[in-house]
Amino acid sequence: MASTRLQKPMLIVGSVNVDLSFYVETFPSPGETTSATGFKKAYGGKGANQAAMSAILNGSAIMIAKVGEDAHGKECVENLSSFGVDVEGVLKTSSAPTGTAAIQVDSAGENLIIVVGGANDELSADDVSTLGSAFDSSQALICQLEVPVPTVLKAMEIAQSKGKVIYFNPSPCPRAVESILPLLSIADVVIPNQGELGLLTSLPTSTQEECTTAARALLTSNSNLKAVIATLGSSGSLYITASDSIHSPPTKLSGPVIDTVGAGDCFLASVAYELECGSTAEEAMGRANLLASKSIQKEGAMSSYDSFR
């Protein structure tokens, strides 16, 4: 891990959700009613997860988002603040509820997630434009796709104009990839999982070699793009540039997999932080793999990061 903290916090533009998790032995089939073995309400959203992890690593982070004027929104904002996230840019709306995710987690720790965007869908490009000072106060930008594409594009354009590095997590990746091509052309580092990399390139990504080929195709078609970091689940991660490919093996777990929700966000925030601190790609991925591996041995998304504080 990098030995010094960043002079400025990371800026995250993205989603804030309340997560309603149902723990089951096996996922129900269509039409089947099953009993849960447990239930937990927690706080998440890809953006909020990445902001919380960024704040843990650096002592602070900045978030631009939108929540509903409801109890869940109030709780989500208070929770982000407890992690050290600056929430001045978390706006409120009375016309939509706070984003909500219904999550099923089976006995193997795998998950199925249904998200109601709610207030996240109302975060607009104009909202981002009015919060330009947040970009001046930040080290780099992290974005994902749980808020509208035009909003993400505006955030990237502002960050680029101010010389900030842009880390883009194309998740959830739309099947109509054409809609996010402008984002890929601006981003400096794209961080997809294997499936998302396949959707972005229409190429097979079942093996490390195929992932490398697909990542190089993405780099070739987007001249601004400096690197692709592909997460491979239990196989670790790959850092690919036009001339190099580095594989970081997975961290050996000391216990069972409990819950994989939020592991990707943990990895993304960690690898972006490490790279901004000056770590090598191999060092950054190794540290991010370690933290993501630890997070899946606890329940919940953001709540699984608590032990890192």
Secondary-structure blueprint of this entry?
Layout: E1 10-13, E2 17-23, E3 38-44, H1 46-58, E4 61-68, H2 71-82, E5 85-93, E6 99-105, E7 111-116, H3 125-129, H4 133-136, E8 140-143, H5 149-161, E9 165-168, H6 181-186, E10 189-190, H7 194-201, H8 208-221, E11 227-231, E12 237-240, E13 245-248, H9 263-276, H10 281-295
Parallel strand pairs: 1-4, 1-8, 2-6, 4-5, 8-9, 9-10, 10-11
Antiparallel strand pairs: 2-3, 6-7, 11-12, 12-13
Helix pairs in contact: 1-9, 7-8, 9-10
Task: State the distance separating the first and last CA atoms.
Answer: 15 Å
Largest sheet: 9 strands, mixed
Tell me the Rg in angstroms: 18 Å
- Structural classification: alpha/beta
Q: What is the mean predicted local confidence, pLDDT? A: 93
**Biggest sheet strand line-up:** 5-4-1-8-9-10-11-12-13
Total helical segments: 10
Write down the overall geometry.
Answer: globular
* Low-confidence segments: none
Helix-strand sequence: EEEHEHEEEHHEHEHEHHEEEHH
Percentage of residues in helical conformation? 25-40%
How many strands? 13
Strand content: 15-25%
Describe this structure in words.
This protein is α/β, with parallel strands linked by helices. Helix content is 34%, strand content 23%. The chain is built from ten helices and 13 strands. It has helices at 46-58, 71-82, 125-129, 133-136, 149-161, 181-186, 194-201, 208-221, 263-276, 281-295, and strands at 10-13, 17-23, 38-44, 61-68, 85-93, 99-105, 111-116, 140-143, 165-168, 189-190, 227-231, 237-240, 245-248. A nine-stranded mixed sheet has the order 5-4-1-8-9-10-11-12-13, sandwiched between helices. A four-stranded mixed sheet has the order 3-2-6-7. Strand 8, helix 5 and strand 9 (165-168) form a beta-alpha-beta unit. Helix 1 crosses helix 9 (263-276) and helix 7 (194-201) crosses helix 8. The chain is globular. The model has no long low-confidence stretch (mean pLDDT 93).
